[in-house]
Write a structure and sequence with these properties.
- By secondary structure, the chain is an all-alpha fold.
- The chain is built from three helices and no strands.
- It starts with 6 loop residues before the first helix and ends with a helix.
């Protein structure tokens, strides 16, 4: 996420905003879990999978909002 932006800008926001940092870390964690579930490494029922996908999307939406209003 934020691959198209300057790393220094992302790093600055990660250092200055605890909310952004927390959401960014959670988004990364969810991304990893969902990737593992997709590969079959992490067994997961459909309800849990759907819930994690929704949480990841909410985190992304909030991250983009914070980024746009920095």
């Amino acid at each position: 996420m934020f691959e198209n932006h300057q790393k220094s800008e992302v790093d600055a926001l990660l250092k200055s905003s605890t909310e952004f940092r927390s959401l960014y870390q959670r988004h990364q964690e969810l991304d990893s879990k969902l990737r593992d579930a997709d590969l079959g490494v992490l067994p997961m029922d459909d309800t849990t999978l759907h819930s994690l996908k929704k949480e990841k999307l909410r985190a992304k939406d909030r991250l983009v909002h914070i980024w746009d209003h920095r």
